[in-house]
Automatic annotation (TrEMBL):
Localization, UniProt: Cell membrane
Record keywords: Cell membrane, Disulfide bond, Glycoprotein, Membrane, Metal-binding, Phosphoprotein, Sodium, Symport, Transmembrane, Transmembrane helix, Transport
Catalytically driven reaction(s): 4-aminobutanoate(out) + chloride(out) + 2 Na(+)(out) = 4-aminobutanoate(in) + chloride(in) + 2 Na(+)(in); beta-alanine(out) + chloride(out) + 2 Na(+)(out) = beta-alanine(in) + chloride(in) + 2 Na(+)(in); taurine(out) + chloride(out) + 2 Na(+)(out) = taurine(in) + chloride(in) + 2 Na(+)(in); hypotaurine(out) + chloride(out) + 2 Na(+)(out) = hypotaurine(in) + chloride(in) + 2 Na(+)(in)
InterPro entries xrefs: Na/ntran_symport, Na/ntran_symport_taurine, SNS_sf
Record-level GO BP terms: neurotransmitter transport
Main location, first listed in the record: membrane
Lineage of source species: Eukaryota, Metazoa, Chordata, Craniata, Vertebrata
GO MF annotation terms: gamma-aminobutyric acid:sodium:chloride symporter activity; metal ion binding; taurine:sodium symporter activity
Family: Belongs to the sodium:neurotransmitter symporter (SNF) (TC 2.A.22) family. SLC6A6 subfamily.
Ranges annotated as biased composition (Basic and acidic residues): 32-44
Gene Ontology cellular-component annotations: cell projection; plasma membrane
Residues that, per the record, bind Na(+): 59, 62, 66, 304, 336, 401, 404-405
Name of the encoding gene: LOC114466440
The protein's name: Transporter
SUPFAM superfamilies: SNF-like (SSF161070)
Amino acid sequence: LTSEYLKKKLQCLKDFHKDTLKPSPGKSPGTRPEDEAEGKAPQREKWASKLDFVLSVAGGFVGLGNVWRFPYLCYKNGGGAFLIPYFIFLFGGGLPVFFLEVALGQYTSEGGITCWAKICPIFTGIGYASIVIVSLLNIYYIVILAWGLYYLFQCFQPELPWAKCKQPWNTEHCVEDTVRKNKTLWMMTNMTNFTSPVTEFWERNVLSISNGIEDIGPLKWDLALCLLAVWVICFFCIWKGVKSTGKVVYITATFPFVMLIILLVRGVTLPGAAEGIKFYLYPNLTRLQDPEVWIDAGTQIFFSYAICLGAMTSLGSYNKYKYNCYRDCLLLGGLNSGTSFVSGFAIFSVLGFMAQEQGVDIADVAESGPGLAFIAYPKAVSMMPLPTLWAVLFFIMLLLLGLDSQFVEVEGQITSIVDLYPEVLRRGYRREIFIAVMCFISYLFGLAMVTKGGMYVFQLFDYYAASGVCLLWVAFFECIAVAWVYGVDNFYDGVEDMIGYRPNSWMKWSWTIITPVLCMGCFIFSLAKYKPLTYNKVYEYPDWAIGLGWFLAMTSMICIPMVMVIKILQSEGSLIEVSSIDDHTSLYIVQVFDICEMCHPLQILYSPNIW
């Protein structure tokens, strides 16, 4: 091969890039001429206003993890010292990948699968992997909302049902907090295993938890109805596409911030709040020597930014082509991380109060995940004046935080699939019917998590199906596809064409080197530090359940190499040609196809700057 021959190939690819991806005047990007013909699917919608997009993204990634995961990780991993790895992963991984996905969706005007088919078909598996992850996530994440709705209903009683040990589900081991304050009674009670009324309400009434995943038990019909209710709400939030989503988020994305501010003000005015906040932020730099601290920081960033799920790409695809997504992505990133940080003050001020009231260390009451939302915080509000009011406000905030994250993720899933078959699913009411079918199927799968053994199934999905390992794997290949195959300079050209200027070179260096290194390093350490799943550090899952968990994880990760192999087998010509590129007789391995294959709309590899 001569250098002139290769230059012709490159020029042909650049012409293909301009003709295929850059929109013509008056047309939305990604619009195909055949779509405009009579009888074809209608063009994709656009956001009615910029604020619709901003609030949808804010609602999508400001969710439960900001409130119940970040504060706990911060205290667990060295307090203020945890912010060092957190910000390294934020600026080296979270923000760059977040902007990449939004910009990619806006540039191609395609959802989470077809956007990759358009710019780099050999990496279309990235889109399929994202859809598998978000589909599994949608099944179990909404179960948290069902629990929250059940708690909200229970708040409307004369007395909070988890405040006293006088309910039918309580056992002889139930001990109220007033007993713990009495030292003599507490010493007598402490001789046996005690449980609090809020713990028994959660485990014996809400969950009616069985002895293990082997004993799945019957359905909890009250939870099944709550699950159905939140799925119906989710359906009506997205059934009209961005027309409905863009309006619902004005409530679901803003009201939680109001509730968070109210709870923050209430929390910092409680006795013991200062000790709780000190416990939250006091730096312990020695914790940075532990690799698990860095793993927690990396996985928290990818969870909290809702990246590698196809949702951000789908939301970006509804932007107008000239929208300045770079500016708003940076602002939204600040909002997301700022919310996580402020949530810690709201949560730990209340935990400090609860620890003081019980006469125990804060470490004894600090929990993460469902333990914080359904045990620790309800217990704290039961000790406050006007407990019903604060419980109602907390669970409304919890529901709205989770609801907009849920329907944004479902919207991303639906958009990605509809864009695969636009001629079929965009006609008439077919999109609405398809959404209803997908919601109903997800509801049926979710019923396994509202049985008496459902908590074990829920944890299995949470630990494996949408784990940080899966997200890191997808993020790594996203950066490789854009920076090393499609070409980071070409992507920058596209972004410049949209927003009118080139983003800071920090993005380019992140996509090219920093983010892939961080993702792969965290991925490897996560596997090296892997521990089999347990429940409450007591129950050990059987081998078949662990195997099922890894199967769920692999269903997404296998998509990327599998689609690569399929694309290569479907192509014609040699994949690797060894050639002298210049007159200095240097040998390079060049991933190219025959010139006709490269310039065809079905070309599988696009790497104009690989040389």
